[in-house]
């Protein structure tokens, strides 16, 4: 089966288009899109495949999808902007802005530590439900009251979902607006980008339907069988709140109730073009908008966490700045200096300040560690540049 790829590619970038087409091989129900900007202008705009395998709905240029942890990168841009504007300080205690957070020995945890997965709140001690995760006040109260899972300053562990409520509550405390509202006001509104943290019900039929590959399901089934407390597994499910695969046919992040809630650790919905434009605007004026300046980027992208987490784990390991995922063995971008965030199942968004690149790749066919789709596309882009 030969996939029909739609869109446009500037001369010289054809190998990247070939790598995008190759990502669909032997995946007949996959859909996806790729967008790349250079110097603030689009050079690649491609889409292909199936948006919903249940109905045969095809993927269109404006088809959005849940981008999972790419949302953390978007939130990290918002936090960096608030630092730039003098409303937040990476070195200040979280409790300066959110006094209730000082409970249970957390008075000294800084904004930067929370951004860098060092707050000790990677998973809730109690089992939460779906009703909990769609209730903002409930979630931030749980995190404010909880004793950290490890002593402050002794290490890090990936805050797979809780990261979003930590950053989102900081946004709310200093702006008076929710994370989704502030995201729209500062980023998507000015850029005209199709991205949301909290998808409006009126747009419920637009996102692609998510599917999970067999290897990814098997991986999470293996994790579920490990003895409790398995904190990395609970970081993904929050107890009973979300399915281990993050989606079922009608549940998890395929459910509009979840997508409509502001879940800034994983619940963002965006097109590939929106991701690329947003990341582009962090490093070069894009549609006349520059979101954060070079000085803040330099601070926010200094390595804060890397290597083995407090709960162990096998390499390759990611590397983190203040919320931004940096180029590493686990997620190769175009080289040192690049920053962004990938997301469960294969989503990737990042910026390259040296080359003035914005990159967005989204797909509804969720894969695990075997996934080489975005890696191949980025490798092709690196070669043509």
Question: How would you sum up the global shape?
Answer: globular
CATH fold category name:
Beta-lactamase
Structural class: alpha+beta
CATH class: Alpha Beta
Q: What percent of residues adopt helix (DSSP H or I)?
A: 25-40%
Report the portion of residues in β strands.
Answer: 15-25%
Mean pLDDT: 96
Number of helices: 14
For the secondary structure, the number of strands is 15
- Note the gap between the termini: 30 Å
List the helices and strands and how they pair.
Elements: E1 5-9, H1 14-22, E2 31-38, E3 41-52, E4 57-58, E5 65-68, H2 70-84, H3 94-97, H4 111-115, H5 130-133, H6 136-145, H7 162-175, H8 179-191, E6 195-196, E7 211-212, H9 214-224, H10 231-237, H11 256-260, E8 268-270, H12 272-283, H13 294-300, E9 305-306, E10 319-320, E11 325-326, E12 339-343, E13 347-352, E14 357-363, E15 365-366, H14 373-384
């Amino acid at each position: 089966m030969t996939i029909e790829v739609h869109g446009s590619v500037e001369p010289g970038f054809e190998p990247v288009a070939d790598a995008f087409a190759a990502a669909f091989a032997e995946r007949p129900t996959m859909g996806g899109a790729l967008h790349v900007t250079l110097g603030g202008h689009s050079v690649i705009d491609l889409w292909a495949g199936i948006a919903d395998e249940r109905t045969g709905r095809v993927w269109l240029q404006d088809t959005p999808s849940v981008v999972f942890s790419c949302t953390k990168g978007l939130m990290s841009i918002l936090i960096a902007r608030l630092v730039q504007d003098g409303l937040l300080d990476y070195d200040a205690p979280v409790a300066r802005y959110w006094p209730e957070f000082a409970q249970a020995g957390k008075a000294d945890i800084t904004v930067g530590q929370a951004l860098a997965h060092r707050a000790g709140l990677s998973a809730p001690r109690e089992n939460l439900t779906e009703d909990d995760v769609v209730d903002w006040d409930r979630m931030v109260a749980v995190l404010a009251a909880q004793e950290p899972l490890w002593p402050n300053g002794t290490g890090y562990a990936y805050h797979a979902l809780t990261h979003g409520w930590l950053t989102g509550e900081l946004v709310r405390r200093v702006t008076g607006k929710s994370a989704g509202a502030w995201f729209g006001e500062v980023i998507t509104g000015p850029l005209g980008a199709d991205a949301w943290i909290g998808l409006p019900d009126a747009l419920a039929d637009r996102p692609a339907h998510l599917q999970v590959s067999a290897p990814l399901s098997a991986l999470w089934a293996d994790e579920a069988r490990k003895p409790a407390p398995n904190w990395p597994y609970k970081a993904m499910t929050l107890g009973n709140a979300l399915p281990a695969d993050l989606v079922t046919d009608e549940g998890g992040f395929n459910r509009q109730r979840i997508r409509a809630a502001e879940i800034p650790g994983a619940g963002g919905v965006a097109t590939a073009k929106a991701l690329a434009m947003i990341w582009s605007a962090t490093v070069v004026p894009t549609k006349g908008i520059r979101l954060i300046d070079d000085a803040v980027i330099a601070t926010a992208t200094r390595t804060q966490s890397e290597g083995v987490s407090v709960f162990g784990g096998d390499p390759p390991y990611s590397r983190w700045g203040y919320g931004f995922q940096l180029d590493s063995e686990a997620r190769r971008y175009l080289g040192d200096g690049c920053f962004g965030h990938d997301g469960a199942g294969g989503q990737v968004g990042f910026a390259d300040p040296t080359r003035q690149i914005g990159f967005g790749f989204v797909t509804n066919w969720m894969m695990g560690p075997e996934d080489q789709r975005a890696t191949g596309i980025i490798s092709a882009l690196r070669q043509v540049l």
